[in-house]
Amino acid sequence: MPQQLFEDDVFLRETFNAIPFPTFVVDDDVRILFWNSAALNLLENDDVFQQRGGEVLHCIHSMETKEGCGHAPYCKTCVVRISVQEADQGRKVYRKKTVMELKTNENINLVPLLVTASPYYYQKKPLSVLILEDIREIMQIDGLLPICAKCKKIRTIGNQWEPVERYIKNHLADVNFTHGICPDCAKEFLSESISKK
Question: What does the angle CA 114 – CA 117 – CA 120 come to, to the nearest 5 degrees?
Fold first, then answer.
């Protein structure tokens, strides 16, 4: 099993532990077979061998049925589960963003993640390396955001004024815009057009 390999091979274990994101080796049911030291920050204890990911990470949906992770209605759309399945079926790396609902100390935390599943076989058994990158830092805009009250341009750190669309596109990953006119602006535009005639 992979756990024995990591325990026996110091180089492999140290390499795996150098990955700065929580990283797991999982089977097709997202049962944890090995984890790196960064994953310990997510785990209450290190006795998680053969437990399912949702149960170990305290996904609120894993608590909805007595069978646990993989059996609640939500589990059919769980990005972590789908990533592992897609990686296994397509035999290629699968990456997808999601927001996990995790329970800690009676609180529900929404954690935006970039989930990566990379498939491989070991002793003819399909396994995946599962990486969970917390992308809150990438997605958040820290502190106050100086915005023009009239034109809505945002002042950047370099004291330049950028249109809100460009600012968001430059500072948030994978954001694209589509434009339309809301009903209030459509009425205003229509009344201005009529008054000009």
Answer: 165
Residue 30: name the closest of 97, 92, 65, 82 by CA: 82
CA distance 93 to 86: 8
Q: What is the DSSP letter of 60?
A: G
Distances (CA, A) of 127 to 84, 140, 145: 9, 33, 44
Q: Among residues 147, 145, 135, which one has the least CA distance to residue 172?
A: 135
Cβ atoms of 21 and 38 closer than 8 Å: yes
Q: What is the pLDDT along the chain (197 residues), one digit of tens a residue?
A: 555 666 667 888 888 899 999 999 999 999 999 999 999 887 877 788 999 999 888 888 888 899 999 999 999 999 999 999 998 887 889 998 888 888 777 788 778 889 999 999 888 888 999 999 988 766 655 566 788 888 888 887 677 888 888 877 776 656 677 778 888 888 887 777 777 76
pTM (2 d.p.): 0.67
Q: Indicate the SS3 state at residue 53.
A: helix
